[in-house]
């Protein structure tokens, strides 16, 4: 008889999966269909809200225009507080897009009954409930702060790896790997845990008990979007400010 350990030795690690997923095969590519569907749904919601808010701009904003202007002011203040008066303006679109996409994605998982929509395989959930989405957002953040550092400081950006002493070079390199890891797993873990808790409570006590937990989930979902966007802005400021923060926040 072959024991379990021997079986694992012959089982390719890449073939292991958690849960069932919907895949689309286009040419030689395998696309994660359920994440793509919910991601484009969130993008469509944001696009519709933007068009509705700017279609008939009023000097005294009201309705959706008022909501979008409030969101814009909030995002502008967020970028300004992290990046400083001089550098924050070019980064408002990036920081704002990160926050809005994550915010709407998180709330879609808390408010929409995705699991009632049946797929040939797998099930729908918030885009941020999938590690592929959160890793992609974290890698975009890493590219952004590398770009910001090179644009602002040129080759001097590399000095951060050997200051104040070259002995810290391995730690500085390791930090560049841990930043996207912490960003992606923090967001993924919190959203997945929240949806699992709500799903279990709805299954066990389907009436009023899950409502406070769902309200708490909406709050934590908003906080996670804020944390991700704030850390992204802080990393960009760190890349542009130089070692020791030679530029201070305004």
Automatic annotation (TrEMBL):
Coarse class of the protein's main subcellular location = membrane
Cross-referenced InterPro entries: ATP_syn_F0_a_bact/chloroplast, ATP_synth_F0_asu, ATP_synth_F0_asu_AS, F0_ATP_A_sf
Q: Where are the transmembrane segments?
A: 31-53, 91-111, 131-150, 187-209, 215-236
One Pfam match, by short name? ATP-synt_A
**What Gene Ontology terms describe where this protein resides (cellular component)?**
plasma membrane-derived thylakoid membrane; proton-transporting ATP synthase complex
Q: Does the keyword Transmembrane helix apply?
A: yes
A single Gene Ontology MF term assigned here is: proton-transporting ATP synthase activity, rotational mechanism
- Which PANTHER family does the UniProt entry name for this protein? ATP SYNTHASE SUBUNIT A, CHLOROPLASTIC (PTHR42823:SF3)
Q: Which HAMAP family match?
A: ATP_synth_a_bact (MF_01393)
- What is the similarity comment for this entry? Belongs to the ATPase A chain family.
Q: What is this protein called?
A: ATP synthase subunit a
The source organism is Limnofasciculus baicalensis BBK-W-15
